[in-house]
Amino acid sequence: MKTLNTERLMLRKFQSSDLDDLYDYAKNPNVGPNAGWEPHVDKSVSKKILDMFIEENEVWAIVDKASNKVIGSIGLHDDRKRNHAKAKMIGYVLSETHWGKGLITEAAKAIIKHAFEDMALELISVYHYPFNEGSKRVIEKCGFKYEGTLRQSSTIYNGDVHDDVCYSITREDFEM
User: Fold this and answer.
1) Which helix H or strand E contains 106, and what residues bound it?
2) Does the pTM of the predicted model rise above 0.85?
3) CA distances (Å), origin 26, targets 18, 21, 43, 98, 163
4) Could you give the CA distance from residue 60 to residue 141 in angstroms, rounded to a whole number?
5) What's the topology of domain 4-175?
6) Mean pLDDT score, 34-57
7) Residues in CB range of 20: below 8 A, 6 or more apart
8) 3-state secondary structure at position 61
């Protein structure tokens, strides 16, 4: 996994020492549900997720350069809605204390550039729930194009079913 640097952020592989920082943002009840996962009730939950991030090697830690603290995560995953070897789905989460500063947009643009230029991907998809306006703004700022809404397509941790608002960006879109 390549380390990526932006003006304010470093995107790097997660490390075992990131547990406290991960738990700090993942326990917030305003963070996880926007992405469909339950807030972490204790560090043991965060430890399992951290171990998975380290093992799977597809999620970067978002490190704030000013504080050297992990403030979120961003990853490229197989998109279960597409059967395409050169397509990935981007997903991200950011500590609530850092919302509204353009940081996740900065991180996403770096990942998108890396995906097309270094990984030779042809398409990146992204989804948000209709109520997640913050994610919608990030998606639009990154140049994704709206594809449509998959109705009642995601069941989240508490059993609620939500629509997925779908977007994508192709290599051609990126190069324009």
Assistant:
1) helix 103-117
2) yes
3) 12, 9, 9, 13, 23
4) 20
5) Aminopeptidase (3.40.630)
6) 92
7) 43
8) strand
